[in-house]
Amino acid sequence: MILGLLVLLLSCREEPVQKETITETETAEGIPVLNLGTFHMGYTTDANTTEFDEHDKKNREEVHAIAARLAKFKPTVIAVEMEPQYNDRLQEQYRAYRENPSMHFEYPDEIELLAYEVGRLSGTERIYGIDHQMGYDYPGIDSLARTLDTPAYKAYMKMAGYRGEQDYDSASTLDKLRIINRNINLDFLITVNADILTHVATEGNFEGADEAAKFYHRNLRMFSNLNQLPLSPDDRVFILMGASHTAFFRDFMSRNPNYHMVDTFGFLD
Questions:
Q1: Which domain of life is it from (predicted)?
Q2: Residue 103 CA from chain centroid, whole number
Q3: For a tag site, which of 23, 105, 154, 160 has the least CB within 10 Å?
């Protein structure tokens, strides 16, 4: 029964995705936030990666064109996926980039390629890291799921993937971001990184759920890092992170009166 219901739910995901509905209005309360999820544009230890040559001139130009779109948000603060302990170095490097946008980065990622350029075009002065690292035993849970022959987990992992109107791998960088940031795909990232693990357990135990809790824990700590930033009601915050974190932040901020999320697609369309 569970497997049949899961397959039905997954098949429904193939329907065309409507434009997102989170919008900024004149009456909205809280600090405006542009919460953008991305794939990692440089080296990453993540299990799932996107092929992207960060040194390719065409790719850099495409990313900078995206930055020009995002800069219309006019953020006063940028938050990125870096641990707060490196904030001094981050701020120093960002200042250097603003003074010399042609500066060379040996191993650039989405921070150097996209966040810095958004900030430079917007005149943003403050940038902060809000990441928090934790370890996960995903291989161990996957191995346990296969040993237990867990049908719901196996069915989901077999069918899991981004849903879009075009093939993700062949899409442009802009279209990749459009696909990633759809609610249906942000939901997918929460499920594939955490919730589906709750189906993996030996009798009377919670091996998968406990591993999933670590990912919730990490994202709650990252959200706490955001909440500890010196923000004022006049600030506008651009958050750039791997999209699984964006998905959790979407949920956290949707219930938090201190923030209101602007329509991401208003800056990607």
A1: Bacteria
A2: 26
A3: 23
In a domain, 91, yes or no: yes
Total tally of structural domains belonging to the chain: 1
- Domain limits for position 68: 28-268
**Per-residue pLDDT tens digits for 151-198:** 999 999 999 999 988 899 899 999 999 999 999 999 999 999 999 999
Is 250 among the domain residues?
A: yes
Euclidean distance between CA atoms 18 and 182, whole angstroms: 9
Specify the pLDDT at position 144. 97
More confident residue, 9 or 76: 76
User: What is the biggest distance separating any 2 CA atoms in the chain, rounded to whole angstroms?
Assistant: 61
The encoded tokens of residue 112 equal 């150097």
Nearest CA to 141 out of 234, 56, 205 is that of 205
- Residues 256-266 have pLDDT tens digits of 999 999 999 99
Answer yes or no: are the C-beta atoms of 209 and 141 closer than 8 Å. Answer: no
Inter-helix orientation angle 243-254/207-227, to 10°: 70
pLDDT of residue 194: 97
| Residue at 197 is within a domain | yes
For residue 55, name the pLDDT band (cuts at 50, 70, 90). low
Task: Report if residue 238 sits inside a domain.
Answer: yes
